[in-house]
Here is the input.
Amino acid sequence: MASNPFIDMRDVHFVLFELFDMETLGRFPGLEGISRAECEEALGLAGRISNDILYDANREADRAGVVYDPSTKEVRIPEGMKKALSAYYDAGFLRMADSHEEGGMGMPEAIAFACNEIFTAASLSFFTYPILGHGNATLLRNFGTDEQRALYLDNILSGRWGGTMCLTEPGAGSDVGALRTKATRLPDGSFRISGQKTFISSGDGDLYENIIHFVLARIEGDPAGTRGISLFIVPKYPVLSDGSFAPLNDVVCTGIEHKMGLHGSATCSMSFGENGGCIGHLLGKEREGMRMMFHMINEARLAVARQGLAVGSSAYLHALAYARERLQGSDPADASSKEQVPIIRHPDVRRMLLRMRSYVEGMRMLAYYTALAIDTARHATGSEAAEAGSLVDFLIPICKAGCTDTGVLVTSEAVQVHGGYGFCADYPVEQLYRDVRITPIWEGTNGIQSLDLVMRKMLLDPGQRMYGLWRERVFRTMEESRSRVQPRYIALLERAVHALDEAVAAMKARYESRDLMQIYADATMLQQAFFMASLAWMHLWGLAGVTQKLGADTDATISGAEDDAEKSFYYGRALASRFYLGAEFPLFFGKIESVLAGERVVVDSGPAFFSGA
Here is the structure.
């Protein structure tokens, strides 16, 4: 299997085909006849495009950056990004999980997710361009008129036209309901749009013939807050009846953000209707803009989770390659040795590498499991589909917050492995660390994810059905692992689930006593505990799987493993799972103790008590 410097393709195949056996999706209508060979072909093509075109383009784009001309208000994208995007669209990757009836490949979401992890690992900047267009397509399918779908869908999904989501404003970030962009009703049923948007990914550029902006705005006279927001389709160039473009729709980029990372991604400030000539068309019903946006929120948040996973994967593999080559110090296992050895021989470096690997592989298992649950929710029927959908809803905030926070952590560890060189632009981990830092902020900050998990997915969920479903799946894995995995690992996870029971009960008691401020203060710690427990669940599952493959006790060194690539892979995976379960997961209990302690210092503090500013 071909290797590359940013993703372990062997592990991708293991998780999809050996651990989760995704070929079983073929039993669902719409996925009949799905074959491993067909899926592997798609993964292989994604790997080749990423390795041969995108990886080098990513480094070039970071150095050159996006260019804005204030005199013409034009945005120029690095050339390498254009070539990579052309290959991506030509191969049909943006619509690979769409049905054949919609012009897609009809592939499982899990395969699309894995292919897009490969692209994202090669370049995080790259994937900011196509992903928003797919979000637009999702909304058009669900809420657009026949005319709107006919006009926009194929043009966006083919890559001829780009797409954006224009939500954020200078004074309305996470508090979307505070937006000031206005929509004025016109006699022909269209709307005049006026306002400013900021932090708009791929907001402008010379990649596409046209860019279709989806803009949140408030119709004049509608109520304040999120309940008064509508969603509008605002093309950069209005499309005439013959398919040609009218002049510019009074939509201009007023500048690009100068960011610490993602220099290859055009993050724009946008002005709509500065001269009174911006025309938009309502999507769906009036005052249901936020409700419609929630139809694509799982897709968007899981995509950002994938970004944390993908950059973490790239950072780990770069650190591993460096540790194998960098000579420093004598062999700590041989006091008589005076020769320098690769730093991978030093225990603390191996600790960091195992920590990185265990988190990357844990994130991959959890994210792929969630993508497979999306496939089941879409294609199954009855209770099976309903349970899968509930599990997706529960796992999304855990994946988004956990994978992005951990992507930053893993990339930081990769810099540490490189020592001083990791802080220099000569090595890729410096760029990776700058790029990945945005992910805990995107698509709802991780504090918002924590509140979503604790409030909406548990405390406001009747009978805590979603938590019960997660818990049942974890116990099922424990039971199925008992004959293959050392009892100490199973016992640790079992103790952790009971600790979560206690923490959830404590949160429920606070909710019943209306101690909401304390819930808000502890929500992030509980979300982090759920993420750690979810990774432990995945690692227990994975450890049982590789033990079955090896047919031996993974506590012991497997004879001949270093000389056999397959044995080495499985044994290395067992080591990573053992490291997570035995050395990293015990930190979980400190987070639970923090939640249960109910320390009220956050609630008792106030603006006046923070000195120094």
The radius of gyration is 25 Å. The mean pLDDT is 95. The first helix runs from residue 9 to 19.
